[in-house]
Amino acid sequence: MRPKAMCxxxxxQQVHTRTKLVVLQHPRERRHPFGTAxxxxxxxxxxxxxxxxxxxxxxxxxxxxxxxxxxxxYPHEAAVDLADLPASELPSTLVLLDGTWAHAKKLYKDxxxxxxxxxxxxxxxxxxxxxxxxxxxxxxxxxVEALVYALSILEPENTSVPTLLTAFDRMIDRQxxxxxxxxxxxxxxxxxxxxxxxxxxxxxxxxxxxxYAESALDGGDPKAPRNLVQWSAVRLIDDAVFDALIRPxxxxxxxxxLAHMGITTADLxxxxxxxxxxxxxxxxxxxxxxxxxxxxxxxxWGNGMLAPDHPRCVLKIDYxxxxxxxxxxxxxxxxxxxxxxxxxxxxxxxGRRLGNAVVVAKWLADQRRLQGSQEGA
Length: 377
Known about the structure:
It is a single chain. This protein is α/β, with parallel strands linked by helices and 377 residues long. It folds into two domains: 13-181, no CATH class; 201-376, 2-Layer Sandwich (Nucleotidyltransferase, domain 5), CATH 3.30.420. The protein is built from twelve helices and eleven strands. The protein has helices at residues 37-43, 101-110, 112-115, 143-154, 163-181, 255-261, 265-269, 274-285, 296-301, 315-323, 330-337, 350-376; strands at 20-25, 48-51, 71-73, 80-81, 93-98, 118-121, 209-217, 226-235, 240-245, 291-293, 312-314. The strands form two sheets. A six-stranded parallel β-sheet has the order 2-1-5-3-6-4. Strand 1, helix 1 and strand 2 (48-51) form a beta-alpha-beta unit. Helix 10 packs across helix 12.
């Protein structure tokens, strides 16, 4: 039995924004009980939400007139991180595509005018809480969550915007309560269990160093390469912390990007050249000690900091090998395994991100030792 859409009136409060909002909605999302645009219709009366119906040709096209500086929030390869844009280049109008990711791709494909807009993306500060729908990638979030994160950059002073997330979370909680009591019919698919694959031997090395990197586009230019801005690490043998900012050789990151990382302009003015930071890090870690990070991206960004002889492993991949499932965000994985989050003495958000990676590295090292004892038994 499919759950019915519930009344959301008591969950929302009115949210008004100076940013004009246009939401193109896939027709199948119009009456979906899990759809989030219903929440937006109630909470944001100023937003333009258009359900795009197809004709006999099934083309979902609807032309909407928008401002010349409008941008579409869409994870395209050419999309620019919204937090990297200077204030003078922030869009006055934001276009969103509402539906499953397959539906969003269809809307994007059928609307050439959307493809011609500037493309922006966000870096979600937390995994999606859309627990009744599975996102195809770990950094994908629902329409409401994406909008809230975007508006927190466009209108950080607007205190009513976060109430959307509160209403969203309550909506999901209530829908889960309904699902728990709905009688389910038909066959239940039996879950397949696969054996864990062997974890990286790097995890067993007592000299292991856990790393975290922050990077930014040169001057916020979407065509420029990313530059390493911060390199932080923890030496597991004694929990010593290395934390250094790197003075950009070119244009500095945008103020919004610095704020996102939790770094101030004064911090960056006191930063050292990358050559000096690398020399200090190699003295801290040693030229042959193994290194690891939660994502491969961290190791790629920090490649200039590492010596060729540093053995490496990616914690996210090792976890996926252990559990035979996608790892999602580090925080989600920790919650799933009952691990306590931790913060270390590093500037900005690196303190929390690196602290969590350290917890995961130690836990995976324990899992590898357990694998070894089971094999020897």
